[in-house]
Write a structure and sequence with these properties.
Strand content: 5-15%
Number of helices: 3
Distance between the termini: 136 Å
Number of strands: 4
Order of helices and strands: EEHEEHH
Helix content: 10-25%
Length: about 140
């Protein structure tokens, strides 16, 4: 007859060398609410307002496996039938007669222009090729 060996405790060594019993940690923190938005505790029980247990994990799992796959649930929100899209209405706006308003003249600031000064370089008499080409057209 085979004897059954006792289950070993799951002890883990941390990076700092400490021994941690995971099962003991789990059992100590079963009633603490889990982080997230599912409203459950660490065991998996559904928690209501004030931390009270609304449904145990066993009840949740039993409901899950009793409902056939693809069956409609009464608690699910009813789907709304899609409404046909409204077609855009084409409007023919009437054009009102445009009354032309007189153009308004606006006085703008214009700085006074300074008189242009003549270049100080005096023209010299043409000589060489310039003088020879001047008479030919």
């Amino acid at each position: 007859m085979a004897t059954r060996q006792p289950t070993r405790k799951k002890l883990y060594r941390t990076m700092q060398g400490r021994m941690v019993d995971i099962d003991k940690l789990r059992s100590a923190n079963e009633s603490v609410s889990a982080i997230g938005n599912m409203n459950v505790n660490a065991r998996g029980d559904v928690i209501g307002q004030g931390g009270r247990i609304v449904q145990t994990k066993d009840q949740v799992m039993k409901n899950y496996y009793q409902t056939p796959k693809g069956a409609a649930q009464d608690t699910a929100p009813a789907r709304v039938a899609p409404q046909p899209k409204a077609e855009p209405q084409v409007m023919n706006p009437t054009v009102k007669e445009m009354v032309q308003q007189p153009v308004k003249t606006v006085n703008t600031f214009k700085p006074k222009a300074e008189p242009k000064s003549e270049p100080t370089v005096k023209p010299t008499a043409k000589s060489g090729i310039d003088a020879a080409l001047d008479g030919i057209e």
